[in-house]
Amino acid sequence: MPYAFGNGDRCQGQAAALRLRQAIARTEDVTREQTPVGRHPEEADDVLGTFATDGALGFDPFPFLRALHAAGSRAVVIGQVAGIMQGSAELTGDLDLLWDGTSDEADALRDALARCGCTELPDLTREQVGYRVTGAGGDLSTPALPWGDMDVTTCLTRAETTRDPEGFAIRYAALDDLIRMRRALGRPKDHRRADELVRLRT
Q1: Pairing of strands 136-141, 160-163
Q2: What pLDDT, in 10s, does the model give residues 13-31?
Q3: Which top-rank group of organisms is this from (predicted)?
Q4: Rounded to the nearest 5°, which phi and psi values hold at 199?
């Protein structure tokens, strides 16, 4: 069943989805003449991130985001895609999601993954696992994953929701939660992106 807005959802209109669409168009323009270098997103360094990997080539998270909506998933976009949706100018090459670890949500994720060409479904009993679908890849994480000194459970309940122009909903991390997640991870790219997000808040 497609995801439906609930009473607790914080709908922010279409602005966040439009920011992401603009960023994906920029990514396509910037990488159009690039050739693969044999570096996968999971091999990204702590400074440049996944945009400097082959993950940026052909990166298009929208089919998977649409499939998540169609499957009724309440997974929350985190990482730099969420940063872009909050206004960050830095591009990325992966789509990371936070989900609650329940069996119902696992079923919804498997449905969405299968819809988008995932032939080897990841082991969703793990607190973090990588995935790959047509157009995107990244990590699926639950609150059981250690996140510095931060409990990310509340990021699921405080997530914001945007409506894509094509009619599907996307849930993504709230700005303050995203800043806290960046600070908790503490890599150079996290501090840089957290600083940018703080400037967007003021």
Answers
A1: unpaired
A2: 899 999 999 999 999 999 9
A3: Bacteria
A4: -65, -35
